[in-house]
Amino acid sequence: MSNDCTLWPPSTVRGIKVLDRSLFTKLVKIPFAKIPTKSIGRIAGAPLMKQWTIERMNRIKPIMEADTKEEKLILFNPDTFTDEVKNSVRNSFKELLELDPEFGTKEFTLTYEDWDLKRCLDAIFDENTRISSFTQIGHIAHLNLRDEALAYKNVLAQILFDKLPKVKTVVNKLDKINSNFRFFEMELLAGEPEYITEIKEFGLTYRLDFSKVFWNSRLSNEHHRIVEKLDRDCVVFDVFAGIGPFALPAIKKLVAKVFANDLNPTSIEYLKENIKLNKIDPQRIETYNLDGAQFIREIISEKLTMYLKEDSCDSLKFHVLMNLPALAVTFLPNFKGILDGKIEMLSHKLNFFVHCYTFIKATEEKPMSWFEEQAILNVRCSLDLPNLQMAEVHHVRTVSNLKEMFCLTFELPFDYFLSSVNNSMKRQIDTENQHEVKEKVPKLDS
After folding, report:
1. What is the radius of gyration, based on Cα positions, of the chain?
2. Could you tell me whether strands 352-361 and 317-322 are parallel, antiparallel, or unpaired per DSSP bridges?
3. 191 assigned binding-site residue
4. Distance of CA 308 to the CA centre of its chain
5. HEC profile for 224-263?
6. In whole angstroms, what is the distance from residue 336 CA to residue 383 CA?
7. Is 83 within any annotated ligand binding site?
């Protein structure tokens, strides 16, 4: 749709950088058919009602009051209500109601309050600029604006604040990323600087400080997808657990045990708070505030050794979750040799699965197969396992035009855990796909 449509904000709002609500006022003429109130029930579900009537707005509805209680007005879309459509509607009324309705037009003054969020946002942009999508986390609306939309940030924020009743705070993501804990820096655009909020996801409630921890509502289906793979025989190691979007539903799924880690102490604080908030048995989960490399080489090593020495281990499946797509691949070499000198052999197969998330970037348009191949190559090079087979390569989402997010699931062979760690081993990650990660990569222990 465009500003030329009748039911669209006036062209005077296009390009505004400061919100002036009076500019959204527009006088429109809307065609109607007048019918007896007692006949409404007979046409409410008729095809003509869905096909030609006006879209519900704030004060305007497909069926409205007439001057008397005995009659109703059926309002039609003024941009599609041609003479041909009018005749078709007339014939339908004659057939359904056995009457010839009175047609006319009615004037309405539409104001800022009448236009919905989408109309308001789309109407202010020129043809070459569009808003990046936004997400809502509790009472917080989070924008991630492209460069060309930054000039509109204040008017966008105010419209979001006005049109989303539950929103009290509007923020925009900045390019700067916290180098230690990987949450993004942001600027307040509208509302109050209230960043502690709650969000519900698949029956669980998460409390968080959005200014200090990471949360991405777009990953809710991904959380669910992974958890659906788990059962009572699974032990879960969540290397970058955050506030628990994988760990907590895994416990609800009644997995055997969860070991959850995050480098950000605030994330661990909220993870523990969310354990209490959701009345989860704290004995089912152990939390750690460690670097991911240390968690792998110490905690996973220790716990895996413990389980492998138990007689019941043959029924267990171990799942490692690594949801830090900008960095996770670089942590993979830490698995090498974690059982060296601790376990010599197994009497049964080790079921050890890794779910590793990664971003893949291109410098020009590429088919999806190229992104998939690059993701697989990065994992194989990082592990120094050129023939490693993937159990699944799942496309999580398109981040931007040239950037894709994947989750690669693979099974690490038992021999890899027994291999001696080579201090000179280098992670041969495609530097183009990892260039945005500027912090120091965790080192392997000697």
Report:
1. 29
2. parallel
3. no
4. 37
5. HHHHCCCCCCEEEEECCCCCCCCHHHHHHCCCCEEEEECC
6. 8
7. no
Query: DSSP 3-state assignment of 177?
Result: strand
Q: Is the per-residue pLDDT at 309 higher than 90?
A: no
* Helix, coil or strand: residue 438: coil
- Under DSSP, the state recorded for 87 is H
pLDDT at 422 over 60: no
Residue 292 annotated as binding site: yes
What is the predicted pLDDT for the residue at 440? 32
Query: Nearest to residue 445, comparing CAs of 413, 422, 419, 418?
Result: 422
Mean pLDDT of the chain: 89
- Most distant pair of Cα atoms in the chain: their distance: 92
- Six-digit token pair at 165? 């009743």
Q: Tens digits of per-residue pLDDT, 339-386?
A: 998 887 776 788 999 999 999 999 999 999 999 999 999 999 999 999
Query: Which of 20-29, 32-41, 221-230 is least confident?
Result: 32-41
Q: Which of 373, 378, 409 is nearest to 391 (CA)?
A: 409
Contacts 24+ apart (CB under 8 A), 144-150: 144/172, 144/173, 145/172, 145/173, 149/125
Distances (CA, A) of 139 to 170, 211, 271, 409: 9, 13, 20, 35
Which residues, listed in sequence order, are joined to residue 346 by a DSSP beta bridge?
none
d(CA 230, CA 273): 24
Closest CA to 338 of 352, 326, 349, 321: 352
Residue 67 marked in a binding site: no
Give the DSSP H or E segment for 390: strand 390-400
The reported pLDDT for the residue numbered 2 is: 59
Binding site annotation covers 263?
A: yes
Q: Where are the beta strands (DSSP E) in 131-249?
A: 134-137, 140-143, 169-177, 184-191, 196-201, 204-209, 234-238
What domains are there in the chain, each with its CATH number? 1-24+113-194 (3.30.300.110), 26-110 (3.30.70), 214-434 (3.40.50.150)
DSSP per-residue letters across 101-126: -EEEEEEEEE-GGGS-HHHHHHHHS-
The DSSP code for 54 is P
Is residue 430 a known part of a binding site? no
CA distance 415 to 380: 16
Residue 359 is classified by DSSP as E
Q: Give the highest mean pLDDT range of 33-47, 180-194, 329-343.
A: 329-343
Give 394's strand partners.
407
